[in-house]
Amino acid sequence: MEEQAPYACGLDAAVDVVGGKWKPMILWALHAGRTLRFGELKRHIPGVSEKMLIQQLRELESDGIVHREVYREVPPKVEYSLTDLGQSLNAALLPLGLWGDTHMAQIVASKASRAGKASKGSEGSHKGSGGSKGSAAAKGSNASAGSTVARAV
User: Fold this and answer.
1) Centroid of chain to Cα 67
2) Partner of 43 at 20 to 30 A CA spacing, among 23, 31, 35, 134?
3) Strand, coil or helix: 37
4) Which domain holds residue 116?
5) How are strands ordered across the β-sheet holding 66-71?
């Protein structure tokens, strides 16, 4: 009996590695051979919690994308950088970031329009109305953060 491959195609494998809200932002922050300490990295990614950043960094490290260097000193010093595999993944994401910059206004307008329609359709429900406003605001802040990071590359 044939063993099924873990991924349907190369895109499936790539999205598995870089999937999630924060991983692409981490990759952009570490672009061009940059090495950053945890606090510096956190400052480059607005809105990420310490817990989430740690989790995402651990996943990227276990996938061979990020290198974590621990210096045995007091206080402890930890630096993060991209591996060769991470550098190649970042290079592959560059066109996606440029596409986002080019079409950002249209994307934001479409999401705002959709959020407006959703809140009008659920005016009688506090849950639906509040959820739409919160998610629209969060998405708007993510768009501006993504643009800032993409432009840095």
Assistant:
1) 17
2) 134
3) strand
4) 10-152
5) 36-37, 77-82, 66-71
Burial 48-59 (b: 16+ CB within 10 A, else e): beeeebeebbeb
Kindly state whether residue 3 falls inside one of the protein's structural domains. Answer: no
pLDDT by residue (tens digit) across 51-83? 999 999 999 999 999 999 999 999 889 999 999
Instruction: Give the integer Cα–Cα distance in Å for 46 and 95.
Output: 22
**Using CA atoms, how far apart are residues 33 and 146, in angstroms rounded to an integer?**
19
Could you tell me the CATH number of the domain that includes residue 108? 1.10.10.10
* Contact call for residues 147 and 99 (beta carbons, < 8 A): no
**Number of separate domains in the chain:** 1
Phi and psi at residue 34, in whole multiples of 5°?
Answer: -70, 140
Report if residue 58 sits inside a domain: yes
